[in-house]
Please model this.
Amino acid sequence: MSGNVNLEQFDPRLKEFYEFRADELTEDDKAALLRLRKAIRIGAPRDGERVLDFGAKQGRLGTVMRSQGINAHYTGFDISDSNVEAARSAGFDFVQGSVSQPLPFPDKSFDCVFALELVEHLTAPVAFLSEIRRILSDDPQARAIISTPSPYN
Model:
């Protein structure tokens, strides 16, 4: 019996789940906006940096960054057709895909990576974290901001 798991078998179910969840997103979710502002404060993306947002939904992190005058090169990444379409229509660079697959980005292609409330949904989080490390720049200030839901933070 092989120790490898074919993660592709989970992608259709995950995609269906997140398509369903996309319909629940609202513009006035104060708790979500608070989490995004906190993540931006912690990650401190700077003008000109290459920022990648995993599980980006409709690009709200990019929207908040714009509203704060941060002129980073924002790229969103999400599995949902609805989310990707909404984000692209808002003018964001967006890539559709699954974090359970090898990421479609070259090595060292981002300065700041966000994965907010995402890793707890993954069947193989270590593989995803390894991919984040691969795509992060070698710059000593490159960083990954990863959060999981907790009532204590």
About this structure: Residues 1-7 have pLDDT under 50 and may be disordered. DSSP finds five helices and five strands in the chain.
